[in-house]
Amino acid sequence: MPKVSVIVPIYNVEKYLDRCMESLLNQTLKDIEIIMVDDGSPDKSPQMCDEYAKKDRRIKVVHKKNGGLSDARNAGLKVATGEYVAFVDSDDYQSLNTYEELYHQAKSGDYDVVYGGAFWNKSNGEFFELFKIDRSFKSKEILTLLGDMLYQDGNRPFEEQVSMSVWTGIYKLDVINKNNISFKSERIYISEDVIFHMELLPLCKSIKCVPKVYYHYCFNEESLTHNFNFKKVECNFRLYEKMCEIVERYGLKELDSKVAHFFLKYTRGIILKEILLSSKGLSDKRQYCRKVYNYAAWSKVIKILKGEKLETPDRLACYIISHKAFLVNYLVYKVYYSILGKGMFT
């Protein structure tokens, strides 16, 4: 049995695949398996996968029809045989000592999950460090970690912000399989990692966070700015409803406020931002913003958050949504993002 199975979903990434694979093949922990899942990629990635498999017996290749990131990860989970499992996006890469150090930590305390930190690399050469936390969580304490994944106030230094992304951790495969945990399609829900963690972490006995950064997330802000897919609006609504369903199913009412905060912040910082900064005309932007404002669950969200201390952008978002104030929304975002040049980190 390999110590760690690394699942790499692959779609249209021939430009980056070598960088990713070299970081995995040269891991200091040699007892790993690398599962390359070709998600029906139209470029040369499928052939590259097969070539890699010929060179290293630790590599498994799965070729499948295109089904999206979650479907590719699930295909990898079906053939994974490691004690732990990890996930790497194929346009990112890992530090060479990642799995040796995370696996050592996992075995030192028989942890179900171990997280390291991440480098958030921007295309202009700037980078940030994220999720540098030195703490263990057991039993009910795990809900504190899950809550922080969903929402943290802005007073915490960026490097101590908790990441919701699965690529920062290694997960005990037995816990995933015994509880039939899988990734839900990002074509239905806007953030597959949120649901994965909400369903998995409450079932874990112990989790360790290591205050060292490993994963290299390569973020290209320009690729997201003008290409908003308006299906995200409905996917965002379904995500909130799924999160509420999980809270109810697991009896996690103490997370109600965190879920409400997450939905508000995600809506104003991702959905509304991408609508208003898209290349669509003003009438289209107004139409989709109104669709956001008119979502029936806002009354529940705002009721939960009433009386809580909100950051200024969240407080303003509550006002805009409650009053369906598109013009205010448009002008504020235009000034904040386009004129002042604020990015996703603010």
Provide structural commentary.
Helix 7 (192-200) runs parallel beside helix 9 (232-250), helix 9 packs antiparallel against helix 10 and helix 10 crosses helix 12. This protein has helices at 17-25, 45-55, 69-79, 98-109, 141-150, 173-178, 192-200, 222-225, 232-250, 256-276, 282-293, 298-305, 312-323, 326-339, and strands at 4-10, 32-39, 59-64, 84-87, 93-94, 113-122, 127-130, 135-138, 169-172, 206-219. Mean pLDDT is 93; it is low at 222-226. It is globular. The protein is an alpha/beta fold and 346 residues long. Strand 1 (4-10), helix 1 and strand 2 form a beta-alpha-beta unit.
Provide a compact summary of the structure.
This protein is α/β, with parallel strands linked by helices and 346 residues long. The chain has 14 helices and ten strands.
Layout of secondary structure:
Blueprint: E1 4-10, H1 17-25, E2 32-39, H2 45-55, E3 59-64, H3 69-79, E4 84-87, E5 93-94, H4 98-109, E6 113-122, E7 127-130, E8 135-138, H5 141-150, E9 169-172, H6 173-178, H7 192-200, E10 206-219, H8 222-225, H9 232-250, H10 256-276, H11 282-293, H12 298-305, H13 312-323, H14 326-339
Parallel strand pairs: 1-2, 1-4, 2-3, 6-10
Antiparallel strand pairs: 4-9, 5-10, 6-7, 6-9, 8-10
| Percent in helix | 40-55%
Q: Main β-sheet, in a few words?
A: 10 strands, mixed
Number of strands: 10
Order of helices and strands: EHEHEHEEHEEEHEHHEHHHHHHH
Overall geometry comes to: globular
The SS-based structural class is alpha/beta
The proportion of residues in beta strands is 15-25%
What's the gyration radius in Å? 20 Å
Q: In angstroms, what separates the terminal alpha carbons?
A: 44 Å
Mean pLDDT over the residues:
93
